[in-house]
Description:
2 copies of one chain form a homodimer. The first copy, chain A, is an alpha+beta fold. The first copy, chain A, is 44% helix and 19% strand. In chain A, β15 (429-433) and β16 (439-442) form a beta hairpin. The radius of gyration of chain A is 29 Å and the shape is globular. Chain A starts with 14 loop residues before the first helix and ends with a helix.
Amino acid sequence: MQKPSIPKGTRDFSPEEMAKRNYIFNTIREVYHLYGFQQIETPAMENLSTLMGKYGEEGDKLLFKILNSGDCFSGITDEELLERNAVKFGVKACEKGLRYDLTVPFARFVVQHRNEITFPFKRYQIQPVWRADRPQRGRYREFYQCDGDVVGSDSLVNEVELIQIMDEVFRRFGIRVCIKMNNRKILSGIAEIIGEADKIVDITVAIDKLDKIGLDNVNEELRSKELSEDAIARLQPIIMLKGTNREKLAVLKQELAASEIAMKGVAEMEFILDRIDKLPLNAELELDLTLARGLNYYTGAIFEVKALDVQIGSITGGGRYDNLTGVFGMDGVSGVGISFGADRIFDVLNQLDLYPADSLQTTQLLFVNFGEKEENYLLPLISKVRAAGIRTELYPEAAKMKKQMGYADTKKIPFVAIVGENEMNEGKINLKNMLTGEQSPVTIEELIGQF
Amino acid sequence: MQKPSIPKGTRDFSPEEMAKRNYIFNTIREVYHLYGFQQIETPAMENLSTLMGKYGEEGDKLLFKILNSGDCFSGITDEELLERNAVKFGVKACEKGLRYDLTVPFARFVVQHRNEITFPFKRYQIQPVWRADRPQRGRYREFYQCDGDVVGSDSLVNEVELIQIMDEVFRRFGIRVCIKMNNRKILSGIAEIIGEADKIVDITVAIDKLDKIGLDNVNEELRSKELSEDAIARLQPIIMLKGTNREKLAVLKQELAASEIAMKGVAEMEFILDRIDKLPLNAELELDLTLARGLNYYTGAIFEVKALDVQIGSITGGGRYDNLTGVFGMDGVSGVGISFGADRIFDVLNQLDLYPADSLQTTQLLFVNFGEKEENYLLPLISKVRAAGIRTELYPEAAKMKKQMGYADTKKIPFVAIVGENEMNEGKINLKNMLTGEQSPVTIEELIGQF
């Protein structure tokens, strides 16, 4: 007999884990709704032609491919088979693959439904994605993404609102965060000014180490990446950038004045900061030039959220991009979006034990079952309790009292109702508070009033 | 440039469709919670060894198999490759497959987590399943199932509560339904009594046609299935079974008295009916001997729900089974469950136009954008409106009024707020009701009070 298991890198979610995950998804969902975002869903399987080539060569290898049903060998010669080239074979024997992220399916969706969509299109999407990555702690082959994007609008008001959304979500979670912001145009400007356009990643990586390794070592690292002395000299004020966001912007304005694109990025930053300053933000918002996520992809603002009280990577990220849909033949659709990392948020909430008690509680009230007579008496009564919206169970059989109370304990049911011969005669319900141990006889109206 | 599309038999869901689907899932979810069911989730991918052989030979062919990442040819000889046997190859080149239903993964879950589960285990699960069926109207390759089961309890109270759950779900939807109930033990008894144990499906199929083709033709059909004249004679009272559930039970009690198993089935029916009679049921509950779903699987009660006002197959079904987990080496786990057909319920709600208005409405209030000055004035104001829980948008740019109003129209936003120079000076908001066209100046407090 086989011992059952699940594929490595995948997970079952227990009732308690599901309650926690639903709390996370519902919170994110509610905040998206508050800002007018609407949900869409796309199929788990996309045509491989939609997915291939969108995530680089490495990404192509990480796609889960679905073997064609029926004759998967059709159109493949014996010679090709004997070549045993898994990649080539995969493309021929598989038409479909599991989605790798929510962005490419979203781009496909926008192009395919362009005539039904009202732009600007504010959509959110909460669905699993699959990657044939090597599983490791905190990295799974199936995990959820929670993306929100506004496409078809260049307005920076969208950036402002996305910052508000991130802020509101983490305020609701009770997670103290820093929202870091950068701008691709400023990074481009820096590279332009020092004449090292292709070294932008090396530069941000080195700058990021200033606190850890000190200025001399940062400069040494830049030298090892073959930046010229002149470039390194020009970089000094930028490496040493500190102070408030406004102070940082002032330095950038001065140092990067000669770069038109940098000035555009600075103006965008100022626009956003000007508005955020007048809004009640809970989180810190920090201009951080070392933020270099999605450099091939983002064209304006870049966001990243760090939890302040837990050592963990970024728990949310995003940015502005041009031409989301160009690869599918529809130009001119720019947008800006964010993605909440549900699995990491789950870890943070667990570590800080921040789940509200009522998000974890399922059944509110358990009726003990003493036998057929009591059962018959209780069924219509329980029906009334449920009609009042109280999540209620009747233990389905007359098991030993200890077993029934143990059931209430492990399910964390806060109240147990005991109705035996006496209670039936008196028309009362003996209500036990499982937390305090207190027990008192109540009428059904009083019982309903308790919740 | 490729024209994007999705695999046949799969669907994108638009914001409006998602709102409708969420209404369906949330309603089902809430009722499950009301009865103490807890949610679990299992991975989309299961090991093929978990899935294969569980759905018959036909089912094995309908499994979507996932090509092993890395070298999918390892362990396969050249000779085997040149055989081009897709089924054999699939099993060797694919370790994983997409789940085909929620029952087998649930059985696997129960066995794998037996030590963490408190029995009786009331779980529900709402997730997509995938089948490589030929797509046709109303049949998809990706669709959701909404299963609820109680395992580890033989008590018929569970059947009673599942009937209440089905009743409550369709009461909330406003769909008039008939809940049909049969019992596998009664069917076994009939077959036993007439000495034709293996013809039970033929018999139920023939009985089912009575209204359409008349008694003579039903008997003719039974003869064509090689039932003996004696057997057909003994079947007459059962074929002609009608009247109330109690009247039907009385006939069965008399005709099937010699069959111990039939009498057990009748007693189960009576137990359930006795209890349901004392409960406020909205739907009809009808004893229907022609119900023959899952005959290889169900061992007691069998349920099916039919919509009364729409021509469509069953929209929910279920029953009691023994030995859910025997195939995974854990015996003695019986249970009873139901499965709501979300896609068909979606069709019924659409046809009858039964969605509550507030289930479809997303954004409640749109602020028109006249330009940077107004935008800056509005952002903090809108922040207050949102803090009051009102789903609010600011149109992200100063587009033409017509375009902004069109946006509100297509998104079905019921209120539009207009704040220009005058309104800013007076500290008022011009609030337009998009349904009536009425427009009036209000303060922010008055505006918030409106919702």
